[in-house]
Design a protein that fits this description.
- By secondary structure, this protein is an alpha/beta fold.
- The chain folds into 2 domains: 215 residues, Rossmann fold (3-Layer(aba) Sandwich), CATH 3.40.50; 95 residues, no CATH class.
- Helix content is 37%, strand content 17%.
- The protein has 9 helices and 8 strands.
- An 8-stranded mixed β-sheet has the order 1-2-4-3-5-6-7-8, with helices on both faces.
- Helix 8 links the parallel strand 7 and strand 8.
- The chain is globular and about 60 Å long.
- Its EC number is 3.4.11.5.
């Protein structure tokens, strides 16, 4: 039986933004917030299944510029200067306050895992626990690996990807962001196609893995390409507050990191480094999956249920 929201609406944090949110599960349950990947992927309906509806009061929302939030970053006339990690952290806090939630579990996948860490480091007193999946830390090293160093793994596909930005070296995100902001629609469409075709290449070395970014509707492809290149090209706006250097702020918060060994675009060393700097964390390595998969989803549910029990006891003890 499909899990449907019991409440939904739009948060208006300023800057002309309207952030779509919804809550599912038990209104009196353990609060949790889900942070999607991308940036720009939006909160998909199947994510509701992560949260036991008897246990959790789960909050899902579409980050600025994507999904059901408005305005969409799909078009080049949308101002992306008001779409940064700091804006998203502020949005999460305003959403928490608007829903009357004191503390919650924070969970995210891919880019959402980096955002979860950045938010938790900014507001550790609001976080009951953290679950990260397909772990990233939003570093420039990571995006240079994906857009430049990966040419050693997929040389033919990379040459096709790099052909649109001749002469560019290192992280190709910023050159692509400029193409995706070009006033000529044909330039933008070529860049969108090339970007999403490359996105289909690199997420996993697991046999049978079949990403489909380039098969999504064009609005979604344009939105994701613009937002991802915008964030990657700006170092995820984390140069002034690198996540790994600030792990001591959340070292006491219980957490689980779940990562696939076949995840070639986000190598395991990022999750390992975070785990080593996080005394209260546990690392789960899925041996035969990459940047997502069925076992990863099942492990995600298990981790949330475990932290949900702990958080429930904490909330009852403080009530």
């Amino acid at each position: 039986m499909a899990i449907e929201p019991y409440a939904s609406g739009y948060l208006k944090p300023g800057d002309g933004q309207e952030i779509y949110w919804e809550t599912v599960g038990n209104p009196d349950g353990v609060p949790a917030v889900y942070l999607h990947g991308g940036p720009g992927s939006g909160a998909k309906e199947n994510i509701r299944e992560l949260f036991d509806p008897e246990v959790f009061r789960a909050v899902l929302f579409d980050q600025r510029g994507c999904g059901r939030s408005r305005p969409s970053a799909e078009t080049v006339d949308v101002d992306l200067t008001v779409n940064t990690t700091q804006h998203l952290i502020a949005d999460i806090e305003k959403l928490r306050e608007s829903l009357g939630i004191e503390r919650w579990i924070v969970t995210g996948i891919s880019w959402g895992s980096a955002l979860a860490l950045a938010y938790s480091q900014a507001h550790p007193e609001r976080v009951l626990g953290i679950v990260l999946v397909a772990v990233t830390a939003g570093t420039r090293r990571e995006t240079e690996w994906i857009t430049w160093d990966m040419r050693r793994v997929f040389p033919r596909e990379w040459e096709e990807f790099a052909a649109l930005v001749p002469g560019a070296t290192g992280d190709l995100s910023a050159p692509y962001a400029r193409l995706l902001a070009d006033p000529d629609p044909e330039v933008v469409e070529r860049a969108v196609k090339a970007w999403n075709t490359w996105e289909d290449v690199h997420p996993s070395l697991a046999p049978g893995f079949e990403p489909s970014y380039s098969l999504q509707e064009m609005k979604v492809q344009r939105t994701k390409a613009r937002l991802i290149s915008h964030y990657w090209g700006n170092g995820h706006f984390l140069d002034q507050a690198p996540i790994l250097e600030n792990m001591a702020k959340i070292g006491h918060i219980p957490g689980v990191l779940i990562h696939g060994r076949y995840d070639v675009s986000s190598p395991l060393d990022t999750a390992w480094g975070l785990h080593q700097a996080w005394p209260a964390s546990r690392l789960v390595v899925i041996g035969d999956e990459g940047h997502g998969g069925a076992q990863m989803f099942a492990s995600w549910i298990d981790a949330l249920n475990d932290l949900g029990k702990q958080a429930g006891q904490t909330l009852r003890g403080s009530g």
